[in-house]
Amino acid sequence: MTKMSSRKIAVGGRAKARAPKTSLLIGADKLTEQQAKAEHEWLTGELKKHSDAYYAKDAPTISDAEYDALRSRYRQVEERFPELVDLFSESYQVGASPARGFKKVRHAIPMLSLENAFAENDVVEFVNGIRRFLKLDGQEIDFSAEPKIDGLSMSLRYEGGELVTAATRGDGAEGEDVTANIRTLEDVPQKLRGRNIPDICEVRGEVYMTKKAFLALNERQEAAGDTIFANPRNSAAGSLRQKDPTITASRPLGFFAYAWGEMSAMPKGTQSGMIDWFERCGFKTNPLTKLCHSVEELIAFHHSIEEERSELDYDIDGVVYKVDRIDWQERLGFVSRRPRWAVAHKFPAERAMTVLRDIEIQVGRTGSFTPVGKLEPVGVGGVIVQNVTLHNEDYIRGIGNKGEVLREGRDIRIGDTVVIQRAGDVIPQVVDVIIDKRPKSAKEFHLPKKCPCPLHTDVVRGATAAGEEESRSRCTGEFACPYQKIEHLKLFVSRRAFDIDGLGEKQLQYFFDEGFVKEPADIFTLEKRNSKLKLEEIEGYGETSVRNLFGAIESRRKIALERFIYALGMRHVGETTGLALARGYGSWDAFHDASLKVAKGDEEAIAEMDALDQIGDTVIKSIADYFGESHNRGIVERLTKEVEIVDAEKPKSNSAVAGKTVVFTGSLEKMTRDEAKATAERLGAKVSGSVSKKTDLVVAGPGAGSKLAEANKHGVKVLTEDEWLTLIGE
Ligand code: IVH
After folding, report:
1. Nearest CA residue ID for atom 18, ligand 1
2. Which of 388, 403, 437 corresponds to the end of one domain?
3. 100 or 549: which carries more pLDDT confidence?
């Protein structure tokens, strides 16, 4: 993050900072302990106040120079008396997310990510899958092959040809409004050029910083004593997430257009046509983009771009292949929030060699143990890596999840020299062990038999929905295990769940240790209880911070259903599953009722949940386990009294089949079963595998048997494939 000192604007209406009477004129090295303490306390309050005014309220009250002077004095005092650095010290707050003050924007069409391919065979499979899905035999498929820019994706909304909003990707459903900053980019037209521009156009693409600009920026940052960015992507992000657009304007950011969101009319019918159209509207598009006609051409494109990679002045981490015909893209649709019609063919990850100093155990939210390797710090792809996940005990022994042999069976020992790999944002992995370098003192690692939590519970290996033993070990303390509770609270306040600013991990841990917050609902009653808790009296935690914290909590009382479900922290219910459940049930009451029934083993409720897209046995078992436990039901009940849960948007509710439960049976001739399911879901229907009285429609092809008989028994409407296609207008 860039500190306040790089602001170039003048600030009006200043409130002069007043120092305590006692010690201002004394050099920090001459302060007595008592004077230092008083001054530190005062400085903490001042810095917090001004930093909040700047970041959260966007209304600075002192100049940069004054702020810097306060910061510098504060550092000197802390250097002289390090014991003054406490949990809430401003030192921890420096680098607080500058994104705090940004408004959230809900994307009209979610911003999704891509499936990754690493091996050439994955690309062959990608193309074959498309052929099978679309039932294409020898027919040629054109692909738009494009470099995968390593920047930040951005959605630009134009209404009547004028730029109205620019939003980051965020969690895909909701991003941050960075319109003012984006307006400073030369590559982004304020007004679209040309005639017949559709009334609504959402142009999507990547904001990036050139390597040259990144190096120059870091030089300037270093000279000014400011934050050094790890790579061009981080510096692009840091430059964009500024409350002050003049800072963004001073950073050379570029933009390549390559995709779209909501469009009131489609100007072209192909990806390549759209890219040309973006150019005509005034955008830059990537000059290396190429139309390919076969797998061989795609792979040759990958090779040639990889060779060119180091010469390019911007970072790329692979190439992207997209089916060119947009009508085919629409037929192919999405699976698990990734398009079936596109794939990212990544470049091999970067590797480095270092020494594994130790292995520690991390107890997760659901009690599972993750051995974490502590490394001799090493730079990989511009980032310093010190920790590496070692997954589980089997992985350390050289055995994979499915029992396969890893690293040719080489185990990992403390003291070993290991090869680590980092691919994009993925957590670094150990890919090999150099046995020749193994010292005699290298130590084998054994998981503890007891949980390191204060309960010292027995450790067991988990089981999957199918009853198979998992490779993960877990603490059996469940709700009594403080490690699990705190991990859940961390997830609860995190950006993708309740997103509560000012309640970072350190603060949360402190509130938890003090017993102020024992479960999620307690966060929302903090303010009510504060006459007793008196948070403002905690050292270094002044009235302003407490007020801001309460403000942040208050602003999050209203939450989207998918975020709420995710925030409950059920095993196997991540963001994607949370969204699928939210879309499937629509409201909290419907989801809650269904989950309670599922927990009681109600077969109809289980079948209904099973029929939802992306929901299978593992998730259902986890939901049943969660709601089957009275302690959890209590947590949920107390929490729902404190918050307002907003219903999920049902997809395409205006289609003829929206909200209907449909069963496909028999063989289909004009589409594959997968395609039929995907289309029905895209139109808002629920596709079920079995017929019951709740089924609205059965689409029966030749050879339909028992399901057709069931439909007739329950009086469910039966359609032929053609009748179905007419109904949905395809
Ligand atoms: S297409 C529905 N094309 O990669 C998919 N993405 O891993 C829309 N990216 O979030 C994305 N270059 O930030 C697409 N030529 C390109 C890209 C590209 C970079 C990024 C983008 C996206 C991520 C997906």
Report:
1. 148
2. 437
3. 549
* Pairwise CA distance, residues 561 & 649, whole Å: 9
Q: Are residues 15 and 116 in the same domain?
A: no
The reply to whether 328 and 358 lie within a common domain is no
Residue 449, exposed/middle/buried by CB under 10 A (0-12, 13-18, 19+)?
exposed
548 belongs to a structural domain: no
Same domain, 252 and 283: yes
Q: Is 417 helix (H, G, I), strand (E, B) or coil?
A: strand
By the 8 A CB rule, do 584 and 573 touch?
Answer: no
Question: Do 83 and 231 have their domain in common?
Answer: no
Q: How far is CA 594 from CA 85, 446, 497, 566, 669, in A?
A: 50, 42, 22, 16, 35
Establish if 674 belongs to a structural domain. Answer: yes
Q: Indicate if 162 and 218 belong to the same structural domain.
A: yes
Q: Is the dihedral of CA 32, 34, 36, 38 positive or negative?
A: negative
Considering 3, 148, 485, 621, which one is annotated as catalytic? 148
Distance (Å) of CA 295 to CA 128, 261, 288, 302, 545: 9, 28, 18, 11, 57
- Give the position, in ligand 1's atom list, of the atom nearest the Cα of 342: 5
Q: What is the pLDDT of residues 256-297, one digit of tens each?
A: 999 999 999 999 999 999 999 999 999 999 999 999 999 999
Query: Averaged over 343-353, what is the pLDDT?
Result: 85
Measured CA to CA, the distance from residue 347 to residue 424 in angstroms comes to 10
Please write the tens of the pLDDT for every residue from 474-486: 777 767 788 889 9
Kindly state whether residue 191 falls inside one of the protein's structural domains. yes
Ligand 1 center to 676 CA (angstroms): 26
pTM: 0.50
148 annotated active-site: yes
Q: What angle do CA 88, 83, 532 make, to 5 degrees?
A: 40
**Cα gap 570→636, rounded to integer Å:** 12
- Taking the centre of ligand 1 as the mean of its atom positions, its distance from the CA of residue 289, in whole angstroms, is 13
CATH at 669: 3.40.50.10190
**CA-to-CA dists, residue 619 to 317, 464, 556, 602, angstroms:** 33, 10, 27, 16
Q: How far is the CA of 431 from the centre of ligand 1 (A)?
A: 27
- Select from 681, 672, 702, 706 the least CA-distant residue to 691: 706
What's 227's domain CATH number?
A: 3.30.470.30
Residue 7 confidence (pLDDT) above 50: no
Determine the pLDDT at residue 425.
Answer: 46
Region 86-105: what's the mean pLDDT? 49
∠ CA(332), CA(333), CA(337), 5° rounding?
Answer: 135
70: pLDDT strictly greater than 80: no
Given a cut of 70, whether residue 69 has pLDDT beyond it is no
What is the rounded distance in angstroms from the CA atom of residue 197 to the CA atom of residue 260?
A: 14
The first and second tokens of residue 255, run together, are 């933009």
Residue 192 shares a structural domain with residue 125: yes
Shared domain check, 65 and 38 = yes
Measure the CA–CA gap between 230 and 253, rounded to whole angstroms: 16
- Of 281, 303, 336, the one marking the end of a domain is 336
The CATH number of whichever domain residue 585 belongs to comes to 1.10.150.20
Percent of the chain past pLDDT 90, that is, above it, reads 43
* SS3 track for 147-212: EEECCEEEEEEEECCEEEEEEECCCCCEEEECHHHHCCCCCCCCECCCCCCCCEEEEEEEEEECHH
**Probe target for ligand 1 pocket from 111, 144, 153, 338, with the most ligand atoms within 8 Å of CB:** 153
Count of the separate structural domains present in the chain: 4
Minimum-distance ligand 1 atom for the alpha carbon of 286:
15
Quick one: 569 and 637 in the same domain? yes
Q: What is the mean pLDDT of the chain?
A: 84
544 domain residue, yes or no? no
Residue whose Cα lies nearest atom 6 of ligand 1: it is: 148
**648 C-alpha vs ligand 1 centroid, how far in Å?**
26
In which domain, by residue range, is 634 found?
A: 560-646
